Amino acid sequence: MTSPLVFVKDLVKTFEVQKKAPGLMGAVKGLFSSETVTLTAVDGVSFSLARGEMVGYIGPNGAGKSTTIKMLTGILTPTSGTLEVDGMVPFRDRRTYTRRIGVVFGQRTQLWWDIAVVESFRLLKEIYEISDHDYGLRMKEFDELLEIGRYLDQPVRKLSLGERMRCDLAASLLHAPPLLFLDEPTIGLDVVAKANVRAFLAEVNRTLETTVILTTHDLDDIEELCQRVLLIDHGKLLYDGPISGLRDRYLPEVRIRFDLKDSALSGKRLEISGIEAENLGQNRFQVVVDLRKMASADVIREVVNRYPVVDLSVFEPDIEEVVGRIYKDHGRALPGAPVSERPATQVRASSIRRG
Questions:
Q1: For the domain that residue 110 is a member of, what is the CATH number?
Q2: Same domain for 268 and 234
Q3: Are residues 158 and 261 in the same domain?
Q4: Which class for 171: exposed (0-12), middle (13-18), buried (19 or more C-beta within 10 A)?
Q5: Strands across the sheet with 6-19, in order?
Q6: What pLDDT does residue 232 have?
Q7: Which range among 90-99, 123-132, 166-175, 254-263 shows the weakest confidence by mean pLDDT?
Q8: pLDDT value at position 244?
Q9: Same-domain status, 239 and 257
Q10: Is the pLDDT of residue 347 over 50?
Q11: How far apart are CA 229 and CA 155, in angstroms?
């Protein structure tokens, strides 16, 4: 059996902070005496990643995501637990280890601000001791996938956010690291730029088998790119598995929406399998089915048999809605905009129509 690229076991990180009393008197008292409290940012987290996996690491602000990533990148030393990446301990073997990872932060750049992009690439080539042959091949690949050739002679400060992100992604992969950390890689990008970044990451993961750990509040990134998701809150790992399992565990329901031919029923109270249908107007109704109690197929069969249905669609919850429910259950608020249901053309939906 192949050993995992990343192995984390019972990882803990605590911080000692001074507890200060409020107000001016509290500040004065703190000059002479202070109370120290221990905060646990990461609490017994365990997981392993195989080579070539692309994993989403999500959670609300303050959940422990950034602290975990800082330990994985070697910036922080764990308080206790086991942490190994590619046979190395990040904080102990940091000089060697940093040559084996790539890091992209959506709001920061590793490129030099006032010089041409290509000069940043040449500097990174020397820092990572990349051969001329490998450098030439990778620059060609990056131009084919990201079209960065047009930006190479421009200073970084003159690039748009989307253009800079393309160049940052290329820079992070120039030395062909087996592990790539992405923190909010599409933040602030428009729809087209996001699609380009996602397509590039999927291709890199497929062709180079680069293992990717993605942290983001844009759950569309997770759904588009990741087969597996890790969910952390209050320092504890709440879930580790496929996105579909996240729905099944935390929000096991579907919405059955149907349009009726008979307008006389539009003002009626409809009940299907003991569930009152919501009247959405214009002969349209919706039933929310709890899959723990009944099968959606049984409800669909009853709807079609009892009423003159001309159109019927089945919607699964959006991933943002699922995570929003989890945060709500744990006393958190989902970052970002309010949840909105995607149209049938964009969600996992099935539809039937009667002529």
A1: 3.40.50.300
A2: no
A3: no
A4: buried
A5: 35-49, 6-19, 80-85
A6: 92
A7: 254-263
A8: 80
A9: no
A10: no
A11: 37
Residues 217 and 346 in one domain: no
Q: By the 8 A CB rule, do 76 and 249 touch?
A: no
Q: Measuring CA to CA, which residue among 149, 187, 150, 180 is closest to residue 165?
A: 187
1 lies in a domain? Answer: no
The answer on 263 and 233 residing in a single domain is no
Tens digits of per-residue pLDDT, 312-322?
A: 999 988 777 88
Percent of the chain with pLDDT over 70: 87
For residue 220, which of 268, 249, 185 has the smallest C-alpha distance? Answer: 185
In a domain, 195, yes or no: yes
In tens, the pLDDT along 62-78 reads: 889 999 999 999 999 99
Residue that is last in its domain, among 195, 213, 246: 246
Which has the minimum average pLDDT: 98-107, 151-160, 294-303, 333-342?
333-342
Decide if 40 is inside a domain: yes
Query: Is 287 within the bounds of a domain?
Result: yes
Q: Is the pLDDT of residue 28 over 70?
A: no
Domain range holding 231?
6-246
Last residue of a domain, one of 199, 229, 246: 246
109 and 13 both lie in a single domain:
yes
Residues 107, 35, single domain; the answer is yes
Pairing of strands 236-242, 228-233: antiparallel
Domain count, the chain: 2
Kindly state whether residues 235 and 287 are assigned to the same domain. no
What's residue 349's pLDDT?
A: 36
Which tops the pLDDT comparison, 215 or 243?
Answer: 215
> pTM here?
0.78
